[in-house]
Amino acid sequence: METKTVQTRHAPVRYLEGGSGEPLVYMHGAGGMTPDDPILAALAARWHVYAPYLPGYGETEECGSLRDMLDFTLHTADVVTALGLKDPILVGHSMGGMIAAEMAALAPNDVTRLALIAPAGLWMDDHPIPDMFALLPYEMPKYLFHDPEAGAKLMTAGLKMDDPEFLKTYLIRNARQLGMAGKLLFPIPERGLSGRLYRITAKTVVVWGESDRMIPPVYGPAFAGAIAGARLINVPEAGHMVVLENPAAIVEAVAGIA
Amino acid sequence: MKFTWFNLMPWPYLPDDFREKNRSVWVDIDQRLFDPVKSHDVYNTYMDLLEYADTLGFDGVGVNEHHQNGYGIMPSPNIIAAGLARRTKNAALVVLGNSIALYNPPVRVAEEFAMLDCISGGRLVAGFPVGTSMDTNYCYGQIPALTREKYAEAHELIIRAWTERDPFAFNGRYNKLRHVNIWPRPIQQPHPPIHIPGGGSVETYDFCIDNTYSYSYLSFSGYIRAKALMQGYWDRVAERNTPDASPYRAGFAQTICVAETDEEAERLYSKHVHYFYNRCLHVYPGFADAPGYRTIKTIQTGALSQYAPPRGGYAELTWKDLIEGGHVIAGSPETVRQRMEDLIKGLNVGNIFCLMHVGDMPADKCMYSSRLFAEKVMPKLRGLLPECEGDGRFWCKPLERRATSGALPTEYQPSRHPEHA
After folding, report:
1. Measured by CB atoms within 10 angstroms of the end CB, which terminus of chain A is less buried, N or C?
2. Cis peptide leading into B105, omega within 30 of 0?
3. Nearest in space to B157 (alpha carbons), one of B143, B175, B134
4. Contacts of residue A133 in chain B, CB cutoff 8 Å?
5. H-helix or E-strand containing B155?
6. Residue B54 contacts residue B89 (beta carbons within 8 Å)
7. CA–CA separation, A230 vs A224, rounded Å?
8. ipTM higher than 0.90?
9. A116/A197 Cα distance (integer angstroms)
10. What distance in Å separates the CA atoms of residue A205 and residue A168, rounded to the nearest whole number?
11. pLDDT by residue (tens digit) across A100-114?
């Protein structure tokens, strides 16, 4: 994947680009994204992938003028436009899925193919989502992965966690990223999407890891049921980070709508 | 010097195994540990102690705001201050403060503080904290990365509400008010003095310098560990070419316990101090700092690590550690005087928030310690900052003549007025 920059009204946006074929925009979750993420390589084997970082993610500065759901949604639509794309396949994971769903609801004529991977954005009182902003780093894997031990290794792969300088940079990046994510997800990851899902006309697939303990799989039918014609695919032996644990399943699901 | 007698109002009945059985004293503390019937006595005793401090000659009595917190049963400091406004005579009412980003709309703070100032005859010292992340984000649900922007807007709105004499429209991002026109407004002009509790961010230093507000560092780790932070503030004051470095530009909170001798202090207070450091400060680290609450600039300075609790936490500290580390200033009046002098000179602070009630300290011991401080320590510290004694910018200016509460005339009696017969 190549790292490039495109300018929008709000910020210079870094994005990863790779592969060839039909354009596909991938939107990462609150944990961020790296060029080595297996999901990117897997998607790029079939499509022309554009994966923009939200401002504040990766190496980019946070953006004070993006404050609420509408700001984030329009900003991401601006990114698509700035990339010169028209009606790309939209794939969003977790927080990225929330933004993708909003884009599809806001401008149904601009989004005809939509893949939501364990998206955030709904809230059910009987199935509260854990407060990710109050979790300590070592507690994360058990919420994010089918196999927390293997997941912990995936999360820290290539990171020099015992180097104090690296750790400092890592903590600052984490604060910057989650600070931006908090605008959509804190303290409850719900910003009224349930009242707008009916507007989505895209051919939609909803994908959920069966062992998701961050946003439990019961949210899958809630999303799929609210979007006309949406298909729900449950992935066994995968958690919230199904994008790391089983990228092939995502590719197959996306192929079904693309 | 301005000495404010401060009570955090800790819940005094946290069980011995509190640390083991509970993950946090704050945010998700077990509801069942609070006993409303017992709280009736606790609240009244705590308020009695604040009133007692007024009779001892403390310059101020202090209250603050915390939510869902086992060491501070004061979600609304204004309610306590209202009681004190009536029952105290001379002390400043130091409300440190109202977390202004949490009030909707923040003119509520302008109004309530104005009421306190009017009822007390101009004795209010107003505090505007951003609020801890525990209170502001985790308990009150404010989005961390937007908290400071909301705070800044609330501040602007309150100051305008206090100082403008005609109704105005306020088109803020977080507050849209067509008719701002508070009624009542404060006695003190242009507005009551303002203290800002801070934790080491440059933005807060600048905010205080720009507005001539007093910067308060309210930590529990004592004056020795506070050196770096306060020095950062004074360096900034110098860097910004501030016209003066008056010690009243700064305040500091210090736990203080006084007895006849050092040994007696340990014997009387050690248990209660440990209650505070062991149980009351047992906060789940996941609630310490919501991402986005601190600016990236502040984190990048690396300053915060210096102010973190000691390695291993407070729970491991012995009485000796707490004394030597300056977390607690305790001992005979002479010991306390010496260390207070070190504190005042070392940090260059004119406003001292004296944490005289600690943990589960019973009222009688607290009174003993407070009286010894007021009689045998305070008078000897008063003259420490002679060159700035006249600096009244950061303290309240009460009316000369103030009403006496409970001084109604005898009731009107028709029989005494024959013209109405």
Report:
1. C
2. yes
3. B175
4. 137-138, 144, 290-291
5. helix B144-163
6. yes
7. 5
8. yes
9. 12
10. 39
11. 999 999 999 999 999
